[in-house]
Amino acid sequence: GAVVSQHPSRVICKSGTSVKIECRSLDFQATTMFWYRQFPKKSLMLMATSNEGSKATYEQGVEKDKFLINHASLTLSTLTVTSAHPEDSSFYICSAREFGREGNQPQHFGDGTRLSIL
Amino acid sequence: AQKVTQAQTEISVVEKEDVTLDCVYETRDTTYYLFWYKQPPSGELVFLIRRNSFDEQNEISGRYSWNFQKSTSSFNFTITASQVVDSAVYFCALSEAYPMDSNYQLIWGAGTKLIIKP
User: What are the two backbone dihedrals, phi and then psi, of residue A55, each rounded to the nearest 5 degrees?
Assistant: First the structure.
């Protein structure tokens, strides 16, 4: 089945550090990648939708300059949390949809990144 | 507006019991997709099923079964003979079939935490 690799799985760093999270589709080309944030015991909150070669579309309330998204190829998207602060601590999950498949194919999810800012 | 409601925040049953997780959705679209995902304690999201709104046949996969009732806008999930390994948070989600932006974003329910006691 389709595999999405997300790295790193866990990050602990000091306030003010920028953190980059990678999301790779390993065995398929991803037209669209999604970035979610999940607070404890809550549902997934869509942060942004990223299409290869174009700027990401951010959801209302998500700071573009804070959460930089790059989708440079059909297999890689990155989320950079710039100058992270404790309130940015959360579980971040990426997902990817397969390129060229007709209809609404399921999103395939990475294993998530647990970000802790001290 | 689209909305997914999972009214059961948490369910706890003893192993081998059957359990049903409820999902009620709202949409103005005549064509849409419904999904169920499982999120075990480790955090990764596991795709379970995708259902097209045109297909009202119930589906069974091993101990899992899904009951899609378009008349009541429900897409309930039943686990038969539950096992401890079924313990997880289960999310129901909805997506347009033909979104204008072609991104097929998911509208997520709040999730139901299922606890299977030995």
Answer: -70, 150
**Nearest Cα residue to B46 out of B9, B96, B90:** B90
Smallest Cα–Cα separation from B56: which of B72, B37, B45, B42?
Answer: B72
pLDDT in tens, B24-38: 999 998 889 999 999
Mean pLDDT, to the nearest integer, of A71-79? Answer: 91
Tokens 């000091």 -> residue: A14
**Per-window interface: A 20-59 vs B, CB < 8 A:** 32, 34, 41-44, 46, 49, 51, 57
Looking at beta carbons, which residues of chain A come within 8 Å of B43?
91, 93, 111-112, 114
Asked if A112 lies within 8 A of B43 by C-beta distance, the reply is yes
DSSP state for residue A27 in the 8-state scheme = S
